[in-house]
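> example.struct
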């Protein structure tokens, strides 16, 4: 896939799954206002992906939040295995703490094979964090705090999302995925 195809697929997932199912009530405004940066990493191993992550973090934190408020680092060739990806996420958390960036930034994780601890691989609730390609979502901590202040019910977001996916079911999720792939082809 080309970078444009990868970004088109990610935007279609954002529109159809994240915004369309209202899994994140904060996503619509940054998407509509074009405040999301999309970075495609061609890394095939963790070290190179970490280098790309550092560049994406630096770029996000040095950008005007009115222009770039959040970013996706999409890495289709690295960390295809979810267990390896999950270990990498733990490492990024440690990196943020050691770099003194944990008060400025958080990283949300999305992967095609995402699986919450204590669930089976086919549990529909895992789809709240399933994306077409492995990616890291970089969020400014100040933006998260402002969003939580503006929308106090966001603290119940996880439970609402789990209920949304349970109500949708596997057939409904398959329909969402079909729309994602159709929309991504239109946007290429």
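> example.seq
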């Amino acid at each position: 896939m080309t970078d444009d195809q990868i970004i088109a697929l990610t935007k279609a997932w954002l529109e159809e799954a994240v915004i369309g199912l209202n899994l994140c009530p904060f996503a619509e405004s940054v998407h509509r206002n074009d405040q999301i940066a999309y970075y495609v990493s061609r890394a095939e191993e963790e070290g190179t992906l970490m280098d790309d992550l550092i560049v994406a973090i630096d770029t996000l934190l040095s950008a005007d939040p009115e222009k770039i408020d959040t970013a996706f680092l999409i890495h289709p060739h690295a960390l295809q295995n979810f267990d390896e990806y999950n270990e990498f996420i733990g490492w990024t958390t440690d990196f943020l703490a050691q770099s003194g960036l944990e008060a400025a930034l958080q990283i949300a994780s999305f992967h095609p094979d995402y699986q919450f601890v204590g669930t089976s691989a086919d549990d529909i609730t895992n789809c709240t964090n399933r994306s077409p390609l492995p990616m890291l979502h970089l969020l400014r901590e100040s933006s998260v705090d402002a969003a939580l202040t503006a929308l106090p019910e966001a603290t119940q977001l996880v439970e609402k999302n789990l209920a949304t996916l349970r109500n949708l079911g596997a057939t409904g999720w398959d329909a969402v995925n079909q729309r994602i792939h159709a929309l991504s082809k239109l946007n290429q």
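> remarks
The chain has one domain: 3-186.
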